[in-house]
Amino acid sequence: MVYETLNNGLMIPLLGFGTYGVTNTHTLMMAIDCGYRLFDTAQMYGNQSQVGAAIRDAMRVYGLKREEFFVTTKLSSNMSGAYTMKSIESTLKILNLDYIDLLLLHEAYAQSKAMYNAMESAYKQGKLKAIGVSNFIPSVFSEFVKTCEIPPAINQCEVHIYYQQPHLLQAMKAYGTLVQSWSPFIAGKSELFANPSLIRIAHTYHKSVAQVALRFLVQQGIIAIPKACNLKYMQENLEIFDFALSVEDMQTLRALDTNTTQFSWGY
Hints:
The chain has about 270 residues and is α/β, with parallel strands linked by helices. It has 10 helices and 10 strands.
């Protein structure tokens, strides 16, 4: 696995496993078997207990250590600072883990500043190894970060072939904040897997369209968390570090940007 370094020095896998809609512990164990170590969940997904259980099972069955895993979850409702602290404690109990590797605000809530202040406190206590945000557009982020003692390590957003958000990537660099793509395949929308340019480039490298779409992101230092419930696709998504897209192919893929959200969630 290839890693990136967060702005606090913590190492994070460049490719992870998205768990939205995944409630089967067996599926999560398959992902661990394949080699995934970054798992992304959230309060709103309703599967934090299953993610925690799969990690504990892997530690017991395979002898893996807790520090080999990177667990991300998100606070998914607007709340006060005091309630945020309670919510963090509750999340730790649900996951049944001693700490959370990365905790995010799921979107820009009305009380985001108070919530983030509470996250900073939990970070200082060692309950969280890193903190960040999700779905913060550059203008909102730039105002929000002025009040942060600890700059967000991650901004998890909609970033993919059809919505590349170069302005977002540039804005995050000033704070050392990495961008993470929460739906790199856009759930197959807009005939992503039938795009002629993607198919041609995939054929050139003897790879799949999915692998090219992921490689396009990670080659720019964008962390990707695709979801797959099929073993073949789980394995395939991991096999993107044995090739690199040429400058010309990267330019071709950049030209596919429509600068239009495919979801309109959180914007």
